[in-house]
Amino acid sequence: MNVVDSIDVEARRRAASILRDVMLRVLDDVIKGRPPKLVIPKRTLSNTIFDPERGILVLGDDVFERNMLDMGETRRFMQTLLMASIVYQALVENEYPTIRDLYYRGKHTISYRDLKGVLREENTWDEQAESDAAIRDIEVATGLLREHMLILSKEKGKVVGNMRIRSGPDVIDLSKLGHGAYAIESTPDLIEFLDVDAEFVLVVEKDAVFQQLHRIGFWRQYKSILVTGAGQPDRATRRFVRRLNEELGLPVYVLTDSDPYGWNIYSVFKVGSITLSYESERLATPKAKFLGVSMTDIFGDTNKKPYLTESERKNFIIKAKERDVKRARELMNYTWFQTPRWKKEINMFLEKKVKLEIEALAGKGLKFLAFQYIPEKIQVRDWID
Amino acid sequence: MNVVDSIDVEARRRAASILRDVMLRVLDDVIKGRPPKLVIPKRTLSNTIFDPERGILVLGDDVFERNMLDMGETRRFMQTLLMASIVYQALVENEYPTIRDLYYRGKHTISYRDLKGVLREENTWDEQAESDAAIRDIEVATGLLREHMLILSKEKGKVVGNMRIRSGPDVIDLSKLGHGAYAIESTPDLIEFLDVDAEFVLVVEKDAVFQQLHRIGFWRQYKSILVTGAGQPDRATRRFVRRLNEELGLPVYVLTDSDPYGWNIYSVFKVGSITLSYESERLATPKAKFLGVSMTDIFGDTNKKPYLTESERKNFIIKAKERDVKRARELMNYTWFQTPRWKKEINMFLEKKVKLEIEALAGKGLKFLAFQYIPEKIQVRDWID
């Protein structure tokens, strides 16, 4: 009835097989009379460590066992098994669930009699937080990301540029999209990179700036691939950028507002997010570089002329809010922000207590942003690593 | 240097010419010794009326004159003129400004001596609210939407389906986008519709549900065009949908959550938004129909079996919040919600005080949603107009 996509069929087969193996091990425990358990790496802050060699956040070695016969764990154990069976069923039935509808798929009330024979009712889960946690348990227990299990989600990443890709049965030319762009799919691992004629990847924080650079022909002028995550990037955008870097060897430059919020977006692309560090191994791009806007772009430095004049500074810069200052102080504690160049950037921010939006540079003229500021910064290697 | 797009060149020429004519009339006042003024339709709630014949919100006949010599209006008058000159300059210089960078482009401090000879300083504008208001003044004074003036903005609308379009120099086949989608451009009036082999347009509130329906091949199975505005739709998505309806004669069905927030999204597509009613003439799709999820889909009705079983209802429905009830009562006051069918829908909601997400239907199985619920509702014309 529906069009079966051979790429998806192969992905389903692989995920279903891995998921089945993990679940068979649990069954094996039951058969052999051992208490059924799942061994799962701990997803706690204390077990989240920065691996300086690989330059990404990873989960440490702490594991815990979800043991069915441990009363405190029984509910979570059963939730994880329930979710695994729903995901498995969706895989073999060619479904494309979302995390929200997985919550609905599994939500029901179980009636049972307690030890005293009293009829009781309990919900499999009440909140999506519980079903989401079960999905994360399965991700870390199997090493499969939810994307590998064909679980879809809301995506807002876009790309244009000098390359062609294969997605599903189609070949898409990312240089022939008119004024629009390609909305990146939920399962970026299934994308095949075909002809690439680009020298770098520019990741832009803001969708509107992405559109400006696209429309003025930036990626055509400087053979490149232009990506936006439209604010905090989703998983698919991060994975897509990582693959461009890792598989094609393209340098990745990140352009954000000059403020702690922008630095954080760069940080999520580069080392991963702290709350979901188990994803970083596949989603982070440790070689990504912060192209700007930097404090020295605004104020200049020894041997560096600022990009803004005195009067532009006066008109364009915005006073930092208390929460910006607080956020900057937090970022200073992260290992990957403790390089000399980042220390200088953050200290300069804390001293001046001002920030600047990319749009202020576009306000100087889009041509300035597209054909002077960005290419010049790349050419003289004026980025922060 | 940059690639000049002939479609954009033509659009620029047209907008610049209209903008110049309006400004020349102001200049003419000065030359002829008349007080310079701009006649602008009032964008107030009391001048926002529902035109039952056309089925959209429009501005009434009330106008006001921004008179330069009226001290209370001088600042706004000058801001409007300043903005007009910045937009004009951007048009002739092949720039693609955003509303945010137009704010920066015009932001500066004017020094002057007052009548007593004291040196004073005043900013052209302090907040983006002021520069945005100037853009809206220009839109209503010239009849040009900001999109016609090549002013770009953040966009989140996506489309896939059985049609090809021309955008800029490229032809894009919306049926050959793999698992991804086409991100709709900021200037949808510049899109040319080429080969269309579709019988209807389905607008889905949520991006994740859009992706599910896309991935399972909904639009291929039922020759159609699938659009999402990813929540509250932006202007470009609304204009794109309107054009599909008006120019191609395709029926438009809107699928949202079953709650006042979903109804409001439908309402914005159908009649326009109340705060920006002057856009409705171009952005609203008065013939759009609310396909669901409706209260009778959940609970059934005389002669209609509900789509949910008793136990599904128990698991899937969500208790309405106080603000949902409040919003529903507000919507009841709008003319276009005062049809018998809508009254019944809203009353049923107020009586039951529950809501339902589309994902709950996908939770019953994506195939149920894609290959039973939606096509059946369309076939038996079970929508609300």
Q: What does it look like?
A:
- The structure is a homodimer of 385-residue chains.
- Chain A is of the alpha+beta class and 385 residues long.
- The first copy, chain A, folds into two domains: 6-53 and 64-149, Orthogonal Bundle (Arc Repressor Mutant, subunit A); 158-379, Dna Topoisomerase Vi A Subunit, Chain: A, domain 2, CATH 3.40.1360.
- Helices cover 44% and strands 18% of the residues of chain A.
- Chain A is built from 15 helices and 17 strands.
- The first copy, chain A, has helices at 6-31, 71-92, 99-106, 128-142, 207-215, 218-221, 235-248, 260-270, 280-283, 295-299, 310-316, 322-332, 340-352, 358-363, 366-379, and strands spanning 37-41, 48-51, 56-59, 63-67, 109-113, 119-123, 158-161, 163-167, 170-173, 181-183, 192-196, 200-204, 224-228, 252-255, 289-292, 318-319, 354-355.
- In chain A, the strands form six sheets. A six-stranded mixed β-sheet of chain A has the order 10-7-13-12-14-15, with helices on both faces. A three-stranded antiparallel β-sheet of chain A has the order 9-8-11, with no helix packed on it.
- In chain A, helix 2 crosses helix 4, helix 3 (99-106) crosses helix 4 and helix 12 packs antiparallel against helix 13 (340-352).
- In chain A, 47% of the residues are buried.
- The model of chain A has no long low-confidence stretch (mean pLDDT 92).
